[in-house]
Design brief:
The protein has two domains: 216 residues, Rossmann fold; 97 residues, no CATH class. The protein is of the alpha/beta class and 327 residues long. The termini are far apart. The protein is built from ten helices and eight strands.
Amino acid sequence: MDKIPGQKRAVQYLYPPIDPFDQRVIARTGGHRIYVEQCGNPEGIPVLVLHGGPGGGCSPAMRRYFDPEVFRVILHDQRGCGRSKPHASVVDNTTWDLVGDIEAIRDELEIGPAIVFGGSWGATLALIYAITHPEAVTHLVLRGVFMATQVELDWFYGGGAGQFWPETWARFTSLIPEEERGDLIAAYHRRLFSGNMVEETKYAQAWSSWENALATVYSTGHGGEAPGPYARAFARLENHYFTNKAFLDEDGWILKNADRLRGIMGYIVQGRYDMICPPQRAWELHKAWPGSDLRMVRNAGHALSEPGISAELVRVMDQIVENKRFT
């Protein structure tokens, strides 16, 4: 992220760094081995943290949004990414496999109803999990809402966001022949799954760079070049899920089933200038979810690391405790 004079850093709003008190690998279906860690208070209020992507993996910074004396924080790397194995694999890797993995983690760790905390794809997965297992969720804390609809995919991969970042969009599309640019997800899919590691990595880095470049309101339009192994897992998994419309039965499935969220406390933290997941979706979710609390953060984009986003997420978690709204 480009540093602007006088710009505050997200880290100043976070709790101090902590190490896990437990790390393990859980064997799951399809030969997948899921990395899981716990930190904070072993007897605390459970929080299940769902990372973005799909394919982003969890990071040490994600532990720091929660008071470690109060919360029992559980993070895991979803199938195919981070420290989970096999790396970058899309075999037996669907939304419903991920929902099953969350249930397996709860069983393994003997976790009752919990707060579910997720951003971007993590918000998508959190919503799907809460809709299908409402009894397991006390609160949803969401950031940068993505509901896996065709409208959202068209916005980001069909030229909508590119109208704001034409030079960055040109770099992303320039690797694809003109006759294939009508469906960039499909065009990149052919190259990300070509079987040629060099080619897959090249296109994975371009895919990742396009998204990274638009993640923060402070961006100059350059997403940098992610390390090859990380980019390959991120791009292949994201493309796989988008190609398959997140494995949902119909377009708009989340909003059509939002009535099942009734009774779950919900907080939606949304950057006003989110170029990846525009605020319209967060607004629609809020209107369909009685009792949800929508917090638009001005001068903020999509990234978890945006100062205003981080500050608001920490504030939400602290307020849940202050209000004793966790039973």
